[in-house]
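Re-run with default settings, no changes from the original entry. Doing this only to confirm the output is reproducible before filing.
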Amino acid sequence: LLSVKLWGNFSLLAAEPTAVKIVKPEIVSLERETTRPASVHAYHEVAVHARVSGYTKQVNVDIGDVVKADQPLASIDVPEMIAGEKQQLAEIVQLKSDIERYEALAALAKAQITVAEADVKKSDAQIAADQIEYDRIRKLTESKSISERLRDEILSRLETSKASRLAVVAKVDVAKAALKAANADTSTAKTLVDVAQKKHDASKIMIAYATLQAPFDGVVSQRNLDPGELVNSGLQKKPLFTIIHSQKVRIRAAIPERDVSWVDVGDKAQFKCDALREGKIDGHVTRLARALDPQTRTMLVEMEIDNKAGNLLPGMFGLLTITLDDRSGRIVVPANALHQGVVYVVGPDDKVRHVPVSVGRYDDGKRIEIIKGLSGEERIVTGG
């Protein structure tokens, strides 16, 4: 109550008492949630296209079939590629035969070189012997002990030995040239075999593409191929098969910008869907995109769910509720109890005092979180 007081020549009249409402702060658990439209996606989904062109020879699966990784889905007839692969294989055999022939020629040349070099040594020995004999006869001729005719015969034999050596040396050179040519031909043939082998390997890989295989364990959700149908590699707009892995599924939702800073991996989440028998599935946020879509200003979040029972099907639609903040033992006061950072607290003596407080992040328009200044046992004034 305001009492009458005299101040100089003026007097202040006491105001009438004003009734105010007094409440205690609430101790609550604060939750901030966001609920967004969400859809179910397969954990893996692959559109199978053809890598080669040809007519469909066989289709092995249909929609709904369970397949294993690498299981044949269909086969395409590629007779031209098979014929080309056989021709490449024949070329490889021919080149390997050429390598054997060139290696045999190289071995023969080596043998000829060995023989010719041995003949050169023999010629050198013969020339040395003839030279000694010629020198001896020449001295005897000079002393008139023998006739010059014998000297000329020995000289002729010496010249013949030297000529024979030149011929043998020429054989060595010819054999070495033959060896070099054989080695060069062998090296060229081996290179050609290597190139042909790589082409053959590439052909086998392309032929293997003629058998369409499942990329992983899953289910065939689409089949757009019939036996005898022409498949054009690179021109086929729609996939021949779609394989999904749905024993685990991804539930995706777009979180608005205002909630992005609140969501974290591990936050509790609940997916509600009319198609579910139980109506809802509990889980947690598994991963975040950590970037906003510039067009929608939303961030993609995923909740990963084990789906071995098959209750969730890709394409199902529902609502995903994420608990962004969950804190217990928090103090909240009515929004109209806070006046520019001050709360009016009534003390034990029923007198009002101003208590500065600090507010938290929670504010739903009706209640405000107080993180400093109150213990929760006070009596606070609400209203104006």
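The radius of gyration is 51 Å. The first strand starts at residue 5 and ends at 7.
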